Design the sequence.
């Protein structure tokens, strides 16, 4: 069949569909309506809220997670803090001794059966903020192209992406039963494809990018249940994980913020997140990050 005949057939089909009252055609990868333009969002990272509730913080034994738990406790929240090895989380144990509203529970994102068991133990506890902070970076040297260690890649994905999604599935009823109804993922600017600057730690970057897509997808499903899903980058924070990445890159600079500064800003951003913003990828400074 010649190209002229093909064009005539397509024209006839389109004309017939129009005559039948259809005003547009949807094909793979397109929509009949242009996407809505999203208004510019800018939140105030210094704006504190007096609202309290119950928060579950994963990976609360050190770094940002420990400071998130500490900050929430200081604000009067009830804190459920998870750690893979609570007996070794001495700073977290000290926090629980000083504040009776802090409870430490054992949880490993690789142990899905254990997550289900914990969810069953807490089934009657409304959780206002499910704060998914726990993550690993993986050995940076084993993420260099030409030396890629795929077992490391599988573990990074298993923790950062799969484990986090498992946590949300296991505890979503607790969130729905709460007043504030918020699910938060601590993600990373490294997950932004549009902001990519270097080729380092691709496993970590990919795991967080995949997490962002999963969270965005979940946000569409949970919006009808009035659950707000927030994706927040905590900034470049002075933690063991960040310093390991910088050491591998042989990068020096005085630009890191403290875990305390990060936690303060992140919690303030969480406080301001509402259902209209669900699924938005934001920085600790309160601005939207490009996908």
Sequence:
């Amino acid at each position: 069949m010649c190209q002229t005949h093909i064009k005539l057939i397509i024209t006839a089909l389109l004309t017939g569909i129009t005559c039948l009252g259809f005003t547009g055609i949807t094909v793979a990868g397109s929509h009949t309506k242009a996407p809505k333009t999203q208004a510019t969002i800018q939140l105030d990272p210094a704006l504190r809220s007096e609202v309290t509730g119950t928060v579950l913080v994963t990976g609360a034994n050190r770094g940002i997670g420990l400071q998130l738990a500490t900050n929430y406790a200081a604000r009067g929240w009830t804190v459920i803090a998870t750690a893979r090895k609570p007996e070794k989380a001495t700073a977290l144990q000290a926090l629980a001794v000083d504040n009776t509203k802090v409870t430490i529970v054992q949880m490993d994102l690789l142990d899905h059966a254990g997550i289900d068991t914990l969810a069953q133990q807490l089934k009657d506890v409304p959780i206002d903020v499910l704060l998914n902070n726990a993550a690993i970076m993986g050995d940076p040297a084993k993420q260099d192209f030409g030396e890629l260690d795929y077992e490391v890649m599988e573990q990074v994905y298993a923790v950062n992406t799969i484990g986090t999604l498992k946590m949300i599935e296991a505890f979503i009823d607790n969130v729905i039963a709460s007043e504030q109804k918020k699910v938060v993922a601590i993600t990373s600017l490294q997950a932004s494809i549009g902001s990519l600057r270097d080729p380092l730690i691709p496993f970590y970057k990919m795991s967080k990018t995949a997490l962002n897509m999963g969270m965005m997808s979940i946000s569409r499903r949970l919006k009808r249940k009035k659950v707000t899903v927030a994706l927040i980058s905590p900034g470049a924070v002075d933690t063991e994980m960040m310093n390991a990445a910088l050491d591998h890159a042989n990068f020096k600079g005085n630009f890191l913020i403290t875990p305390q500064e990060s936690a303060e800003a992140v919690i303030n951003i969480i406080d301001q997140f509402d259902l209209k913003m669900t699924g938005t990828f934001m920085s600790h400074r309160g601005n939207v990050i490009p996908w």
Summary: The longest strand covers residues 78-83. Confidence is low (pLDDT under 50) at residues 6-28.
